[in-house]
Structures are given as C-alpha cells and as structure tokens.
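Kindly inspect what follows.
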Amino acid sequence: MTTSSFSILGLKTASFSYSGLLHMVELEIAGKKKFAVTYNNAACSVTYHKDEFYRNALRKFSVIHPDGIGVYMAARFLFPGVSFQRMTGSDFYPILIQKAIEKQWSIFIFGDTNETLKKIPGRYPFLRIIGMSPGYGFADTLPEQMAELKPDLVLVGMGVPKQEIWISENWEKLPEAVFMAVGDGIKVLSGTKKRGWIFIQKTGLEWVVRLISEPLRLWRRYLVWMPVFIILVVIQKFRGKSE
C-alpha cells in the first residue's frame, strides 16, 4: 500500500485517512507478519529532535501516522498547497476496535493501570481480548507471554518514548503481530480519557480540556513542548528544510 509522507523536525510521517490506516492494519494482520505502528504529534516531534534512544527505536516502526492539531497545522504551514487530512488517535482507536470485533482479531492490551484495563471488556464485551498487562510493574517475561498467546494485534500504551523503546528492545522476542503504540489510547478505550465537546474537538482545542483535567501530568507537554515545537517548525520552514 502506498501513501504520501511529510517530514517534521526530521520525523517522517505518513499522510493517512482513517480508512486508509485501518485498511493497512487489516492487510498486515492478514499477512501474519510482525509490523509496528506509532504516531507523531507535537510532543513526539520534539522528543525525536532531542532523544537519540527514541530515534533509534523508531527504526523498527514501519508506519508513523499523524496525531492531533499540532502536526496537522505544522504540515499545512511547512507544505502549503499540499492536502492533508487531520487525524487523532482518540477518534481512530474506537474505529480500530470495531473492526477488531467484526474480524474477531485476538488482542493483547499492554499499558496504563489494572483499574483502567478492567473497564475495557465491559465497554466492548464482544472484543476478543486474550491478554492484558498494566504498564507499571509488568513481568520481564511479557514478550514470551505474548509469543505464547499469539495475538493478532497488540496495543501498547505507555507514552512516548517508553512504548516505542519497549517494542524496539523486545522486537526479536515478540510474536508476529501488528504492534500499535497508542499512548493514551487505552484511556480512550476504557472511557476514562477526558474529551471536549464535539465543537471543541473540531476546532482543535481539545488539548485545553485535557490540560485542565490532568494539569500535573500534562502541563509540560502543552505549556513547554508545544511552544518549543512551534519555534522549531518555524526554524525548519525558514531554513528551507521542508522536505
């Protein structure tokens, strides 16, 4: 499957629609190959710019899709005249889960807390979950456990860059499956992630709702990294490196 891509702060990102990304996941699961997918948002781009371990980990990832208003606006600014579709993981992951139910994919969910994980089966009773593990205090043998269970799809939600580094470091031990780094996607599926009203989501201001709801966890992402991201994108633009 071919798709266009763009580069923000050196991080190459594929330009997808929701249906296009879903179709790609479906094809890779049908092919029974090991395949890794993650996302790029403003915080990811800044992390990529400064963190060598994260950059190295992303070499294992076949696809990096856009996530959120920051990357969307940066792409529009850097590449005027090019058409981009705005994407958010919060909108995509429920679509992915509905497809998983339809196809009866076996799923392993890894990340967040036991309290959060326990809410997911109740919200999606027909989802074929074959294993779950919190993202804190998990066993070192988790890759071997996954290999024994042979899931079709593994959702890893531990935040950037921890989730990508874990997938990369354990790549050789992991089974043939689609591994998708989802960040707060596990909270989305459990119903515990605070989202703004629909009109707030459409205007790209949902991050304000998240900051208000979780200020201690998210203040650095939105009040420090976002301004840094904007400055670095402007520098990229005027250095003529909008490749």
Summary: The first helix runs from residue 18 to 31. The first strand starts at residue 5 and ends at 8. Residues 236 and 242 are 6 Å apart (CA to CA).
